[in-house]
Design goal:
The protein has 17 helices and ten strands. It folds into two domains: 264 residues, MetI-like fold (Orthogonal Bundle), CATH 1.10.3720; 176 residues.
């Protein structure tokens, strides 16, 4: 075929395709998906991909927090997640070789539902191993009242050169001091009836008391929120003038987080959806190209050879089609480490049989055409006739079938991951759904852990269905007449 003929064929195809609105819409969505996949390092965080299974990386995020935009649909505003590393520092010499290092974090609270927790993290550097620093933690409320949250000497630090470094990680909800102090603080404003319902500090939620007005119900989470400027006060007492504080930050764990929220392991689900898109497109396209390519080549070759060779190839096709995919994959997973590449290879090796059947039926008609007979009479080799004259005639069907095969590959991978047979070393939407199912997300009402990955699979699958349907309509003469 000459270049001019090829160019004209492409023009004719584009002219026909642009009238397929469903196909145009599918191409637009696919372009958006491809752009998102290519620019994933800019849209998401590269470190999130590398540390998806490293739970320590996510420990500063809230647990099971819904998306931040949920505030638009609720009557009460939930506080977002805030990490603060900017603070005011005051150093005071108390005499006797004692130094007070005070860190002041300012937090503006303007919400109806308080943070789920308050954490202070930092590193205390000290030089005298026999005198580790002491740390006190308290919070100054907008009404001028102060609540003590923590008080203890730091644990023995790790030796580094001529000094020691003690890592501090204080959680208010895990602090017995915070529970006791908030209980005592709230008792002064409670009714006798309410106090009978709260028998000890173990029944108190410190964060609720801290961010509530001093009125009856403060211990029962029914008091109105106290909005305004809060100051988290961290007082570290050192016993050497060289001692200092570094890498200090406070974390107000939000009730809502980011675009898609977090899950049980505190992972940002938006990161998982974005990075999972790459594998979704790669897996779907690779399986579609290889399985359809194998099926086309096998079917056309079988049709051209005919006779006992055709019969033998068709029996082989039926044998492969009857192989149970899931048990085979279970055996492979048991024998080898589960890998996304094993899944791609297995699907490519087993998903071509249907395409081969259709390609054979088309090939039986094509091999009777005059140009095929002419090529055979001129002494063309069988391989040349198959590749040069027959396969190009079924390429329209091949392209349409490739597009329609992508959703099947995506759903298969998601199903395998849902059963625990997926590759845990990569981020896939199926793996996210498996983690959600394993944690009982549906029963707990954590819809943001289930709907986004499921919807993402549906969108990618529907995109290729729309493109495949449009291609089939344009390239299949019978469909065009319909």
């Amino acid at each position: 075929m000459r270049w001019e003929d090829t160019k004209q064929s492409i023009k004719n195809f584009l002219f026909e395709f642009r009238h397929q609105k469903i196909g145009i819409f599918g191409v637009i969505v696919l372009a958006i998906l491809l752009i998102t996949a290519v620019f994933a390092p800019l849209i998401a965080t590269p470190e999130a991909k590398e540390n998806w299974r490293n739970m320590a990386y996510w420990d500063e995020n809230p647990v099971n927090a819904p998306p931040a935009w949920m505030n638009y649909f609720t009557s009460k505003d939930m506080c977002p997640h805030v990490i603060m590393d900017n603070y005011e520092e005051k150093i005071t010499d108390l005499g006797g070789g004692i130094k007070q290092d005070q860190l002041i974090f300012v937090y503006n609270y303007k919400y109806d539902i308080p943070p789920t927790d308050l954490t202070f993290k930092g590193e205390l550097v000290y030089y005298n191993s026999s005198k580790p620093p002491t740390i006190n933690m308290s919070i100054l409320r907008p009404d001028g009242k102060t609540i003590k949250l923590y008080s203890a000497a730091s644990k023995t630090g790790k030796p580094e050169d001529d000094h020691y470094v003690a890592e501090i990680n204080v959680l208010v909800t895990a602090s017995d001091t915070a529970k006791k102090e908030t209980y005592n603080f709230g008792r002064d404003f409670e009714t006798e009836e309410n106090l009978e319902k709260v028998l000890s500090p173990d029944f108190v939620k410190p964060m609720s008391v801290i961010f509530s007005k001093t009125e009856p119900g403060i211990l029962l989470e029914s008091a109105d929120p106290l909005k305004g400027e809060y100051k988290l006060l961290i007082d570290v007492f050192y016993f050497d003038e060289r001692d200092n504080t570094r890498s200090a930050k406070s974390i107000f764990a939000g009730k809502v987080y980011g675009l898609l929220g977090t899950e049980k392991n505190r992972r940002d689900l938006f990161q998982g959806i974005v990075w999972g898109l790459r594998w979704a497109l790669a897996l779907g396209l690779l399986v579609a190209v290889f399985s359809v390519g194998i099926g086309i080549a096998f079917g056309i070759t079988s049709a051209y050879l005919g006779g006992w060779k055709d019969e033998l190839m068709q029996r082989f096709n039926e044998g492969v089609a009857s192989l149970p995919f899931l048990p085979i994959l279970i055996l492979v997973a048991a024998a080898f480490k589960p890998s996304i590449w094993n899944i791609i290879i297995l699907m490519s090796a087993l998903y071509w049989t249907g395409t081969a059947k259709v390609a054979r039926s088309m090939g039986l008609q094509i091999k009777e055409e005059t140009y095929v007979e002419a090529a055979r009479c001129l002494g063309a080799r069988d391989r040349r006739i198959i590749i040069k004259h027959m396969i190009p005639q079924v390429m329209p069907y091949a392209f349409a079938n490739m597009a329609l095969s992508v959703p099947s590959a995506l759903l298969t991978e998601a199903g395998l991951s849902f059963l625990g047979l997926g590759d845990t070393t990569v981020i896939t939407w199926g793996q996210i759904l498996f983690d959600a199912q394993f944690a009982g997300a549906t029963l707990k009402g954590l819809w943001w852990w289930v709907i986004p990955p499921g919807l993402a699979i549906a969108i990618v699958g529907l995109t290729f269905v729309m493109i495949g349907t449009a291609l089939d309509t344009v390239l299949n003469p019978k469909m065009k007449r319909m």
